[in-house]
Amino acid sequence: MHTLIDIGTNLTHDSFDRDRDAVIRQAVDAGVSRMIVTGASAEGSHQAAELSKAYPGLLYATAGVHPHHAKEYLDGTTELLTELAAQPFVVAVGECGLDYFRNFSPVADQKRAFAAQLDIAVSNGKPVFLHQRDAHDDFVAIPTSRINDISGGVAHCFTGGPGEMAEYLDMGLHVGVTGWVCDERRGHDLREALPGLPRDRLLLETDAPYLVPRDFPEKMPARRNEPRVLPHILAAVAQLMERDEAEVATAATANTERLFGI
Question: Buried-most residue among 156, 157, 180, 201 (CB within 10 A)?
Answer without folding.
Answer: 156
